[in-house]
């Protein structure tokens, strides 16, 4: 039979199995755990802080973009209303012109210019015109006083 030869693959140091490693007091271990948890909390809170700031900035840009779109829409509407206003002013000028009024009176209403026999002239004295001008120039208080005086 073959005898197995003993090979030394492992170091020959003798390890005392009965010796137990010294334990540190629990207080020291608790402090390290607290320090580690505090460090982990700080490590997690810093990226969350930057994420919150980034989201806040994006939210503000979204609001700015929405306001810009609303401004653009209102400017476009303003331009359309200005064009409509100019069209209406042009139509009004055409309606107000005396030639247009005369044409409409002749064509639509059947009116004609008066003949010489249809015109009546009224003679007005200069004193009557002056009296009318003086009554128009009176103050409202004088007009009221004159009306009350005429009643008695």
Structure, explained:
The chain is mainly alpha-helical and 152 residues long. 69% of the residues lie in helices and 0% in strands. The chain is elongated. It starts with 25 loop residues before the first helix and ends with a helix. 0% of the residues are buried.
Brief summary of the model shown:
By secondary structure, the protein is mainly alpha-helical. Helices cover 69% and strands 0% of the residues.
What is the global morphology? elongated
- Separate helix tally: 4
- Quick one: how many beta strands? 0
Note the main sheet: none
Distance between the termini: 165 Å
**Low-pLDDT segments, ≥5 res:** none
**Strand-pairing-aware structural class:** mainly alpha
Please state roughly what percent of the residues sit in beta strands, choosing from under 5%, 5-15%, 15-25%, 25-35%, 35-45% or over 45%: under 5%
Question: What's the pLDDT, averaged over the residues?
Answer: 79
Question: What is Rg?
Answer: 53 Å
Helix content: 55-70%
Order of helices and strands: HHHH
């Amino acid at each position: 039979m073959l005898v197995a030869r003993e090979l030394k693959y492992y170091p020959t140091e003798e390890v005392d199995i009965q010796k137990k490693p010294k334990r540190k007091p629990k207080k020291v271990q608790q402090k390290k755990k607290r320090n580690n948890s505090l460090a982990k909390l700080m490590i997690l809170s810093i990226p969350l802080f930057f994420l919150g700031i980034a989201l806040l900035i994006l939210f503000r840009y979204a609001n700015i973009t929405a306001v810009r779109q609303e401004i653009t829409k209102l400017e476009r509407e303003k331009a359309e209303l200005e064009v409509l206003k100019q069209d209406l002013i042009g139509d009004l000028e055409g309606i107000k012109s005396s030639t247009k009024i005369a044409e409409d009176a002749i064509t639509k209403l059947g009116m004609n210019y008066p003949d010489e026999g249809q015109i009546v002239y009224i003679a007005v004295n200069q004193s009557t015109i002056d009296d009318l001008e003086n009554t128009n120039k009176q103050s409202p208080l004088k007009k009221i006083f004159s009306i009350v005086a005429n009643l008695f």
